[in-house]
Automatic annotation (TrEMBL):
PROSITE patterns: ABC_TRANSPORTER_1, ABC_TRANSPORTER_2. It comes from Halovulum marinum. GO terms for cellular component: plasma membrane. Belongs to the ABC transporter superfamily. This is ATP-binding cassette domain-containing protein. GO terms for biological process: peptide transport; transmembrane transport. Residues 1-248 form the ABC transporter domain. It is found in: Cell inner membrane.
Amino acid sequence: GLTRHFALGAGGLLGGRPQIVRAVDDVSFSIRRGETLAVVGESGCGKTTVGRLVLRLIEADAGRIEIGGTDIRALDDAALRRFRRRIQIVIQDPFGSLNPRMTIGAIILEPLEVHREGNAASRRARLAALLEMVGLPAEFAARFPHELSGGQRQRVGIARALALETDLLVCDEAVSALDVSVQAQIVNLLQRIKREQGLTYLFISHDMAIVRHMADRIAVMYLGQIVETGPKRAIFDAPAHPYTRALLASVPRSEPGTRPAPAVLGDIPSPIDPPPGCRFHTRCPHAGDICRTVRPAPVALAAAHTASCHLLDPATAAQLRSPS
Ligand code: SF4
């Protein structure tokens, strides 16, 4: 039931009233220990806000976030600080978050510093282990961020995120800014570290080709809501929601001569005052009257596979025209 709305400032007043961005609206999902849940959707769908809400980098307006039995919204500042040792984030472009005046070694060890963890000798040993884990030479500890490539900086971001006893890693478009060949290296690195360290990933991405490599399960978001959730195989082989089908149709194929279908029809509407009923109705080729007024409830399709669409609900499907 996670919800977060943002009021725009004075520039966002409409008729004297503040405008509200419904960034995340009644979103529910679970992640099992050791799995990768990918949250996918177009830019502006609210997936990054979901990642930050889970970390409590921003506070939810409503809803509950339970991690390993702990209700993290109920934690006070001191308890949250302790809990943060276990949840970390890797962001798209770590350059902005790497202090240009600090060496790579100091950056990676900063979380240990902040949490007053270990002594000088144990920190040196931890630094060596982390650099090796992410495939960077030991001598990189003395370098500065500007001396590294984008892929190397992302390795530093991952090492820093794993410096403490991390078990849940939020990867927010963690490979999106990298060249394709470097993307593959970082994806492989994330997969290997997950296996070796027994990590759990909340993997936020707009790139279905990367999600195909990374995910165990997928949650598809559209305009602040989850429209379909299921195991990766079900989402890729039998996508049920018209939005998921359109997203997948626009993924480039590797076969020569095949071209991706055009991306989803039209622009994504503004999350300010989103369309009523099914939020996808302004772009959906199957939309009928009921879609414009009634929000579709999740329909269970198969084991752990649900989608929210009136077409999939026998009680409402008859009211819609046949799918083309
Ligand atoms: Fe399309 Fe209606 Fe289904 Fe929404 S509920 S995806 S508008 S058919």
